[in-house]
Amino acid sequence: MIPLRLEDALICITSIGPIAENDPLRLAFFLPHIGVTGGLGVHARTLLASLIECNEAFELTVVAPDNPAQLFPRSGIEPGWTEPLQDPRFNLDLIKWPESANLADPLDAILANRPAIQSADVIYTSYYTGMAHPPAPQIITFHDAGFLEFPEAFGSTASTRLNTLRLIKSSISAMHCVSADARDRICRLLPFDPSRTRVVWHALADEASAINSAKHESWQDRPLWEEGDTLRQWGRYAFFPVGAATGFNRRRKNVPLAVEAFRDANIPDFRLVIASTCLLDGGSLDQLLPPSEQLQGGAMIRGAWRSDDGRVIILPNLDRPQFLAAMAHSHVVYYPTRYEGFGLPAIEAMALGIPLISGKTTSLIEVVGNAGILVNPDSRHDLSDALRSAAHDSALRSHLTEQGCERSHLFSRSRLANGMMSMFHEFADRR
Known about the structure:
This protein is of the alpha/beta class.
């Protein structure tokens, strides 16, 4: 394992040194996921929100597809996704995505003619790819190394991404990794020079006001979606945020085994509520549910899938306030994922003060620390035991709530902004 340097561990604050020019730093971001509801979209919008709060002078142009649903047809689209770009330091360059273009290919044909790219001091791309011939230093974010470790789950996309990275690797000035674990895997598998990586953790997406609002008792009797359930109807429940759990995500989010472990726990008057950002149709339900659950029956009722006995519910894609409220009023956040690059739901649970059960694997060991119950995600027995403990042990629940709230402060927007701006200054070409 590549040793984790102290300066990498939290915010990667690098010695910037004097800059001769007084002009604001010119940044150009390519953020294809900025409009989607899943983790990559949350990260992109949180990064912009953190920079809004930053006191540094900079000029930023965000290049993004004008129709996110064209690139990500099975993902939910965040209402008002352009709102973070109202800051006067930000410009939005919306591009019509060519039908023949592949997001896994080099981006030169898409980005080379954009004026902001040509004039940038730093180019930042957030999706495993970049330009073969960038006109300025290029920083690429790696969220995880899943397609390198499990190429069979990605089909032809894995080989396309790998070929692109091999082609552009020499043109990458720095690689931003969202955890030390992600960095170690990428540097080993790609391979990539660890001295050209910087670790900057994700930040909590939501302001304190949104966290406090999500906890309010008034949510108990509000429908979470049109003609949908209220929280009071669920009673005690474990909340399982899985995102778009199809393809590789189905494998890593571990939904089928997690559902079976919930059944094994056999906790009276206790439900499992699964929050997915993918569209609930026959194909996605087949991906989410274990065969044993499918054979028991179940149906779509008022927009959500429900098992015959009502103990397992799969929600439709919720807007952000409703998602947070559903998490905030749960008895435990159940996140037995097998593989993560970071694990945003873990820090959301900690900030909301909800006890967390997490997979003892990859970046989650680094992110959760001692603020959750870390469990072997492939052990039904261990997962069931953890659920029973979280349901019945009030002292353990109080301890996890206290530890989680304290640890959540490590994932502030100011730390994210400082770490990213430090990295941008370090690699900028001040022409």
